[in-house]
Structure formats: C-alpha cells, structure tokens
Amino acid sequence: MSNEILSQEEIDALLGAMDKGEVDLETNSEAVVETEDYDITSQEVHMKDDFDALAEVYEKFTRHVRGTLEARLQTNVVIQAASKSIVKYGDFIGAHTRPSGFGIFSMTPLIGKGLMVFDPRLFFIMMDCLAGGTGKPPKKIRDFTPIESGIMRRLFGDILKDL
Predict the structure, then answer these.
(1) Which listed residue, of 15, 36, 72, 122, carries a Cα 20 to 30 Å from 81's Cα?
(2) How many domains in the chain?
(3) Has residue 43 been placed in a domain?
C-alpha cells in the first residue's frame, strides 16, 4: 500500500472533475480473483514448519506429565517422542487398536479441539501399576470395565492439568 497523500490542489482537481462528469464513478469492472482447487481428501499433507515452538511446548509438557504419572503410578516413567508428522484424522483413528481410550478436550484460547489417546496395552500396564503391580503388559487385550473407564477419565484429567 502506498503512503502517498494527495495534495489539496489534487483533491480539488479530482472533486472538480467529478462535478463536471469527467470522472466515471460507476465502474463495472470486476476484480479478477485467481483461485486454486484444493482437495481436502487428498493424501498429500506437507509439514509447513519444523514446529520449533511446538517442540518447546512438548518438552515442558512431557516434563510435567512425567512427574504426574510417576506420582500416580509410583514407578519411574519415561516419555519420549516417537515421531513428528501430520496425519489425516481417518488414518490416525484407523491406526489404533480396539479398545482405545479417546479423550477430546478444548484448547482454550486456541480454536478447535484436542485429542488424547490411551493405547490399551499402555493403559493396562498403568492399571497394573495402580493396583500395586510391576507394570507388566497384559496377555490379552479386552474391553475396559466401567471402573477402568472411570480411572482413565481421571488420568486424562490429571494429564490435561499439565497441558
């Protein structure tokens, strides 16, 4: 945008030309807008940035969650990033075994929702620790009982406080 300002003489000349009908005030020209089709169902998703700010948030979050889980489970907890990628929702949901614990939460002041997932193997290891065990993995994956679902909701809540 230009920072040029019309002088008083130029303004007077423009107003005079408008009064005499020398300036066409009615323009039928339409603005030309170029658009590009975007298929939201396409499989091509590219990383826009390295997510440096997100990496810093993740680092702080994992430090807090580690403390929360160690206090809750009474055992040492190791949290590390497995990968960083953008995944379509359908692919993400399809990659999880059943049953999995899904927690949807608001991210105020951000727009939208967040999704936290407990893999059933991880959750049953956590349940074993909560019950005083050593954290051994389950032999067979089964549906969650109502009590286990309640414990999962509390764990979701505890973890979200760290976010």
Answers:
(1) 72
(2) 1
(3) no
Beta carbons within 10 angstroms of residue 88's beta carbon: 13
> In CATH, what number is assigned to the domain containing residue 70?
3.40.1550.10
| Rounded-to-integer distance, Cα 66 and Cα 79, Å | 7
Query: What is the phi/psi pair of residue 101, to 5°?
Result: -95, 120
Name every residue whose Cβ is closer than 8 Å to that of residue 76 and which is 6 or more positions away in sequence: 70
Give residues with Cβ within 8 angstroms of 153, minimum separation 6. Answer: 103
Residue 145 lies in a domain: yes
Within a domain: 80:
yes
Which range marks the domain in which residue 66 is found? Answer: 52-162
pTM for the predicted model, two decimal places: 0.59
Angle of helix 52-73 relative to helix 146-162, nearest 10 degrees? 130
Kindly state the tokens that stand for 45.
């998703």
Name the token pair of 1: 């945008």
Instruction: Identify whether the C-beta of residue 129 lies closer than 8 Å to the C-beta of residue 113.
Output: no
Tens digits of residue pLDDT in 24-49 = 666 655 667 777 776 655 555 555 55
Q: Which residues of 35-63 are buried (b: 16+ CB within 10 A; e: fewer)?
A: eeeeeeeeeeeeeeeeeeeeeeeeeeebe
